[in-house]
Specification:
Radius of gyration of chain B: 24 Å
Strand content of chain A: 5-15%
Number of strands of chain A: 12
Order of helices and strands of chain A: HEHEHEHHHHEEEEHHEHHHEHEEHHHEHH
Oligomer: heterodimer
Structural class of chain A: alpha/beta
Strand content of chain B: under 5%
Number of strands of chain B: 0
Order of helices and strands of chain B: HHHHHHHHHHHHHH
Shape of chain A: globular
């Protein structure tokens, strides 16, 4: 009796444990793309303005190539982390999509090292992209004289967003742009003293976004870019200053930051609970959706230490080795790099075109300023968004940053850790 | 020989498919995992087989143990498991004990207590992330706000954002979800004790407490053992709940399962496999004594 009971129980227990343990790891959308008219495009643009942008691209693609069929292989979740995880498995298993989305820059290093990407420099010649994209961008994309992806649009990562009413209530002139990071911290302190959150921030990657903005402003473009090539010493005193600034800013942020995503942090500003935030320029869509008026209700300026810097990240598309339909993939790359494709996509997504030879009149006010700075400013690759480093390096920096912002390490320990990480990642 | 074949042949044939499947997909892949963990497979090029990997023995294991961050993850895991285990056992046992007697409405409460188990960790994690919001004072929400409303301001705390004990806060939802299940296990255990035994004990003049202590509790040992094994191994594998309340990079709630995920996403397959091996070894420490005990009690 007892034993039978027990067996039934433990059986039920195992079954139940199995049930709860099975997380939903959605079944893979494999297959597809067998017929040569289908082009399987892998993205993490599944909702919101990103989905709208993708739809605009698809419309253009169908116009450009009516005999090809677009096959949507978008994977939602985790700001792309779910998609990247699945992509990694598919590439390892030799079952690549025809083309996939990736941040342009060193995030591609792993795929390149693994021999999973085709060189697309020929397409740059064929589609005339080399002259259409600015030189800085082409240099950033070039690895050992080869280019592995075609950018569809550009975002800016180092933008300070302000709630004008909150600033005025705190006695800060919203039209004055702080001259350097010190001045910015002083303003944030003043805002915090008025009873709101000085600077709203979210979970770890948004903190890394904040870190990179501070590093860019404090170090300047040359030294910042040198951090990733080994030319700038992570143990230097200028880095110490930047990290101290970062620490001071974190002190002025909301205490529940680790539980929030960037949208929640931006919402705090929209609700008038926070004065400032530093976020990529996709945030502009949130302000617009909340019916806030550019310049009247919300403002923006790049965080700067004197030099004008454009914190750069770009979405791009690739041509994987062994793609079932490479010609279809090339057609897709043609559409996303064409003038019409880039303008249509960026208008819907809230980014700016990577091409400099397009008509920008249609773009709203914020994008106009971004387009202007993109053409003039020094370009620094974004750390938080995979332009500056391979994935492993970014993961390490994120870990160290989380350790620092939760208080488990001080500035000295943090800097030492960052230096060690840089050393082990540049030597590897 | 022929007799042996007749005796074992048919059963062996019957279990052969599952034996093969388990052999390849569980034990075979465990072997691959251990092999990977003892190589220097740390980069994308090696992961895809473009560059050779070399055998490095236990280097990865030692290196991991030498990093402070991994020790922090292990400490978190121990803390989480201890809290989860003790909490779920205590709550589950208490409820089972209360509901064991035929009370009016007992069934109703059984169902109530069991229901949280039907919710997935990811879904409840989303709600608990809000409940466990770490803001205090004016901007508080969730449980901290509740404490303010009932005048218990001193109880406000940063929950999972505490560096050392943050992980304990995440054990709360786990306890909430699994206590009902432990209760069901214990209830079945209680019901497995024949009434005759209780009556016999009462006839011998045992008080109600003595009946429990001397007669019933000793018979619950097998249930207790299996409950411990089930809860503890779930706790060691915990990933979804932690990821949906906190995030992968958050230092305060790092556990080995999260490290494993991060290593994998950074194309560091060797370290990922080594962390997995650590988890397997820890679980083995738990399961093997249990199996031995089961085996003994069966052969006795």
């Amino acid at each position: 009796m007892q034993r039978r009971n027990f067996l039934v129980l433990s059986g039920a227990g195992l079954a139940a444990a199995g049930l709860t343990a099975c997380g939903g790891s959605g079944s893979g959308g494999s297959g597809g793309g067998e017929s040569s008219s289908e082009v399987e495009v892998f993205t993490w643009w599944a909702q919101g303005s990103e989905k709208a942008g993708l739809d605009a691209l698809v419309a253009q693609f169908e116009k450009d190539y009516p005999d090809l069929t677009f096959l949507n292989a978008s994977v939602a979740g985790g700001a792309g982390s779910a998609a990247k995880d699945m992509l990694q498995s598919r590439l390892q298993a030799g079952d690549p999509p025809d083309t996939f989305q990736a941040h342009a820059g060193l995030e591609l290093t792993d795929y390149i090292d693994a021999g999973q990407l085709e060189d697309v420099s020929d397409l740059y010649e064929e589609y005339g992209l080399t002259d259409a994209f600015p030189d800085d961008l082409v240099t950033l994309l070039t690895v050992d004289d080869q280019i592995y992806s075609v950018p569809s649009n550009i975002h800016r990562s180092n933008v300070v967003w302000t709630n004008v009413a909150v600033l005025e209530a705190a006695g800060i002139d919203p039209t004055v742009v702080p001259a350097d990071v010190e001045a910015f911290i002083a303003d944030v302190e003043k805002a915090a003293a008025s009873g709101v959150t000085g600077l709203s921030v979210g979970t770890t990657w948004t903190q890394v976004n904040l870190l990179e903005a501070v590093l860019m402003a404090d170090l300047g473009s040359t030294a910042y870019n040198g951090l990733w090539t080994g030319e700038t010493d992570w143990s230097g005193s200028d880095v110490t200053t930047a990290l101290e600034h970062f620490g001071a800013l974190i002190e002025l942020t909301n205490t529940d930051r680790d539980g929030l995503d960037w949208t929640d942090a931006t919402q705090m500003q929209i609700d008038g609970d926070a004065a400032y935030s530093i976020m990529g320029d996709w945030a502009v869509a949130s302000f617009q959706q909340a019916d806030l008026k550019d310049g009247e209700d919300f403002g923006y300026f790049p965080l700067s230490g004197g030099e004008e810097i454009f914190g750069f990240l770009a979405d791009s598309f690739t041509l994987p080795v062994g793609a079932p339909n490479p010609d279809g993939a090339k057609a897709w790359l043609d559409t996303i790099s064409s003038q019409e494709g880039q303008v249509g996509f960026s208008l819907a997504k809230g980014s700016i075109p990577a091409r400099t030879d397009v008509d920008t009149e249609e773009f709203p006010a914020y994008q106009q300023t971004a387009i202007e700075s993109y053409a003039q400013d020094a370009i620094c690759p974004s750390l938080a968004h995979g332009a500056a480093t391979p994935v492993a390096w970014l993961n390490d920096v994120a870990d160290a940053t989380s350790k620092f912002t939760t208080g488990a390490s001080d500035v000295a320990g943090y800097q030492e850790e960052l230096a060690t990480i840089a050393e082990s990642n540049t030597s590897a | 020989m022929k007799k042996v074949a007749r005796h074992y042949g048919a059963p062996l044939l019957m279990i052969l498919p599952s034996l093969l499947l388990i052999g390849i997909f569980v034990y075979g892949l465990l072997g691959v995992n251990f092999w990977t963990s003892m190589t220097d497979n740390h980069s994308a090029a090696q992961a895809s087989g473009r560059e050779p990997v070399a055998f490095v023995g236990l280097t990865n294991y030692i290196d991991l143990l030498l990093t402070e961050d991994f020790r922090h993850s292990l400490a978190n895991l121990v803390l989480f498991t201890a809290t989860f285990l003790v909490g779920a056992m205590a709550m589950g046992f208490l409820w089972a004990w209360l509901l064991e007697r035929p009370l009016r409405g007992g069934r109703f409460f059984q169902t109530i207590y069991l229901f949280p188990m039907a919710v997935s960790f990811v879904a409840s994690g989303v709600v608990w992330r809000w409940l466990l919001n770490s803001n205090q004072g004016e901007s508080a929400s969730g449980l901290n706000r509740l404490f303010q409303m009932i005048g218990l301001d001193v109880l406000q705390n940063p929950w999972w954002n505490n560096i050392t004990f943050g992980i304990v806060a995440i054990a709360l939802p786990a306890i909430w979800q699994l206590s009902g299940y432990v209760m069901a296990l214990f209830l079945a255990g209680f019901r497995g004790v024949p009434d005759e035994l209780r009556e016999a004990a009462r006839m011998d003049g045992a008080s109600e407490w003595q009946v429990y202590r001397m007669v019933i509790f000793p018979q619950l040992t097998p249930v207790l053992m299996s409950a411990i094994v089930i809860i503890a191994h779930m706790s060691l594998k915990s990933f979804d709940l932690i990821m949906s309340i906190s995030s992968a990079a958050a230092y305060q709630t790092k556990v080995p399962a999260v490290d494993m995920f991060l290593f994998k996403s950074g194309f560091d397959y060797a370290n990922s496999a080594a962390v997995g091996a650590f988890l397997l070894i820890i679980i083995a420490f738990l399961i093997v004594p249990y199996l031995v005990q089961q085996h003994r009690s069966r052969t006795r």
